[in-house]
Amino acid sequence: MDKLHFAFGVLGNASALFLFLAPLITFKRIVKRKSTEQFSGVPYVMTLFNNLLSAWYGLPFVSPNNILVSTINGTGAAIEITYVLIFSTFAPNKEKKKILGLLILVLTVFVAIVLVSLFALHGNNRKLFCGLAATIFSIVMYASPLTIIRLVIKTKSVEFMPFFLSLFVFLCGTCFFIFGLLGKDPFIAIPNGFGSGLGAVQLILYAIYRKNKGTKTSTYTADGSTGMEKPNTKPHQQETPSNSLQPQVESHV
Predict the structure, then answer these.
(1) 3-state DSSP call for residue 228?
(2) Which one, of 152, 149, 111, lies nearest residue 133 by Cα?
(3) d(CA 173, CA 234)
(4) Are 63 and 187 contacting, i.e. CB atoms less than 8 angstroms apart?
(5) Could you tell me the pLDDT band of residue 14, with boundaries at 50, 70 and 90?
(6) How far is Cα 80 from Cα 76, in angstroms, rounded to an integer?
(7) Mean pLDDT score of the chain
(8) What confidence tens digit (pLDDT) does each residue in 106-121 have?
(9) For residues 24 and 87, what is the distance between their CA atoms, to the nearest angstrom?
(10) pTM check: above 0.70
(11) What is the SS3 string spanning 126-175?
(12) Nearest Cα residue to 4 out of 175, 194, 189, 223
């Protein structure tokens, strides 16, 4: 049972890594154009927060037998802070101040949670406190593609829902759902069970509407963890998004 538990943790780490790296396409575009255009940086900051909470929860003195949760989310936190810094570099001043302000707030809250869990809580109370915080934000991250699901149903087209992102949401959620069940840890099983179900819905929608890919036109394009871009009102900036591995959601353990 321990070997099986470890195996699903490793599989979950591998699929989660693909999700963390998915926004590279978006940031390649940002760096190339030296502009964040209509992309939003908020989801990257919130994903960083989720990574930090999950990484903290997985540490042995908080939650035993969950070190694989810490390793992948620690890696994710390093990747997300890089995204945030790149975004801030090329964002307009107003957006830059907004993102940096949110980053400071998120880091402050995280430090407060760490200090409370270290000095005010012990044993099961510490695990409960950190687990609830990590669970809430994991569910929030997994729920981020709901706007894309609504768009797919409305347009009857999967043009804006990359297949591989949906696949890795499903795989990551499923692997860590089983990992949580085997480890008897509801704080891992519950949010990832939700993520697995949401990923399955995306794959089902893809199977239903895959033949309609590219048959609809819109001024919206897919944006990784943001779910979608804002409407692009400048005709010369409009692009027809491909269905390649573009960021759609950064869901986490």
Answers:
(1) strand
(2) 111
(3) 37
(4) yes
(5) very high
(6) 6
(7) 82
(8) 999 999 999 999 999 9
(9) 12
(10) yes
(11) HHHHHHHHHHHHHHHHHCCCHHHHHHHHHHCCCCCCCHHHHHHHHHHHHH
(12) 175
